[in-house]
Amino acid sequence: MRKCGDLIKVLHVHDNYGSTDQHNLPGMGMIKWWDVMAALREINFDGVFSLELNFPNGFAEPIMEQYCRLAFNMANEIANGVKA
């Protein structure tokens, strides 16, 4: 990321465990998001942080709404550098 700098305009964001393209929520895999976000801050990234997630099938709408909120909150926490 640091080498590409201002050429980065859109990030396809999801997480995985390194074996397949799993599309897990950010933080639900092995990507070191705090390091990724530090690099993005260094290059002054101001592009699109686009979530591409795998949604579970067959759940009722209220559960899916909660899942979407969780996805947003996790990505927002990472994007804003909040760390417990």
Plain-language structure description:
With 84 residues, this protein is of the alpha+beta class. It has one domain (5-79). It is built from two helices and two strands. The protein has helices spanning 33-42, 61-79; strands at 10-13, 48-51. It has a two-stranded parallel sheet. Helix 1 (33-42) links the parallel strand 1 and strand 2. The two termini are 25 Å apart. The relative contact order is 0.22. The mean pLDDT is 88.
List how many beta strands DSSP finds: 2
Approximately what portion of the residues adopt beta-strand conformation?
A: 5-15%
Enumerate how many helices there are, as a single number: 2
The whole-number mean of residue pLDDT values reads 88
Give the spatial strand order of the biggest sheet: 1-2
Helix content: 25-40%
- What general outline do the C-alpha atoms trace? elongated
Q: How many domain units?
A: 1
Distance between the termini: 25 Å
Structural class: alpha+beta
Low-confidence stretches: none
How are helices and strands ordered from N to C? EHEH
Radius of gyration, rounded? 14 Å
| Main beta-sheet strand count, sense and barrel state | 2 strands, parallel
Jot down its keywords.
2 helices; alpha+beta; 84 residues; two-stranded parallel sheet; single chain
Q: Brief overview, please?
A:
By secondary structure, this protein is an alpha+beta fold.
